[in-house]
């Protein structure tokens, strides 16, 4: 019997456990939109990396 293990995602979720949506539908904890949170599992690793390396840091900088 051969089993195929599901591949592990290399990019973990940015969720911090502070799940409160603020103005513009942005989560206070992870800075993702409702759609981004809901679609995280369907994103490719490249899309996730872009969120972590580009999108979320830009939102954090804009927040300050």
Question: Can you give a write-up of this model?
Answer:
39% of the residues lie in helices and 0% in strands. The protein is mainly alpha-helical. It has a domain at 23-63. It is globular and about 35 Å long.
User: How much helical structure, as a percent, in the residues?
Assistant: 25-40%
**Given the helix and strand composition, which structural class is it?**
mainly alpha
Span between termini: 55 Å
The whole-angstrom Rg is: 14 Å
* Count of alpha and pi helical runs: 2
Mean pLDDT: 87
Written as H for each helix and E for each strand, in order along the chain, the element string is HH
Number-wise, the strands total 0
Poorly predicted regions are none
Largest sheet: none
Estimated share of beta-strand residues: under 5%
The global form is globular
In short:
The chain has helices at residues 34-39, 45-63. With 64 residues, it is mainly α.
Topology:
Elements: H1 34-39, H2 45-63
Name some characteristics of this structure:
0% strand; 2 helices; mainly alpha; 64 residues
């Amino acid at each position: 019997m051969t089993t195929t293990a599901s591949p592990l995602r290399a990019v973990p979720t940015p969720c911090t456990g502070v799940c409160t949506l603020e103005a513009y539908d942005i989560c206070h904890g992870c800075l993702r939109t409702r759609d981004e949170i809901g679609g995280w599992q369907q994103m490719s690793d490249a899309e996730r990396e872009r969120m972590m390396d580009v999108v979320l840091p830009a939102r954090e900088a804009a927040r300050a």
